[in-house]
């Protein structure tokens, strides 16, 4: 019954069209309890609900933060189940589209370590692509936040994605590197193209479009 109720709540939060946020706010304390569940199906639907609620204005994001959901969401980025990990990652990605303070809160909770781990472990391509998108949202923040990515050896891990056989991930990695060097206003290191700020090499053997 709990699974059915969580699935129904998730559909309410999604809506077509989505109901006014004021009508959905009472779901936040319920979702705060649901994401502590040990049931993967409940966790997945609760995270999808949060991904819908966090997709929008900084006001919505702040409501998610104040409901005390963020620490658990970061923890769920290490969940072994892709069905839980993907909506948790989408929610985290939405939250870091907020203002610099909201993004910094997620960094303070250790989100960078989790995101970079997703890039280097044997996860589905869709998860790596989502992680790249989330990191790209962080690079839209302050120079200090961008520097934190480099200090976490994040740029090295992103560089390695250039050799991925997925063209989508390759170009997301290239865009991230371009953004980093442009924002950081640094002298480009050897091996980087002076105009675009990234290695322009195609993965060995070309792209695999299968």
Give an overview in words.
Pfam families: Arm, Arm_3. One of its GO terms (biological process) is protein transport. Keywords: Protein transport, Repeat, Transport. This is Importin subunit alpha-1-like protein. This protein has 2 domains: 1-109, Leucine-rich Repeat Variant (Alpha Horseshoe), CATH 1.25.10; 111-180, Alpha Horseshoe (Leucine-rich Repeat Variant), CATH 1.25.10. 64% of the residues lie in helices and 0% in strands. The protein is built from 13 helices and no strands. It has helices spanning 2-14, 21-24, 27-34, 40-53, 58-66, 70-75, 82-95, 100-108, 111-120, 125-138, 143-151, 154-160, 167-184. Helix 1 runs parallel beside helix 4. The radius of gyration is 18 Å and the shape is globular. Mean pLDDT is 82; it is low at 186-190, 192-202 and 206-210.
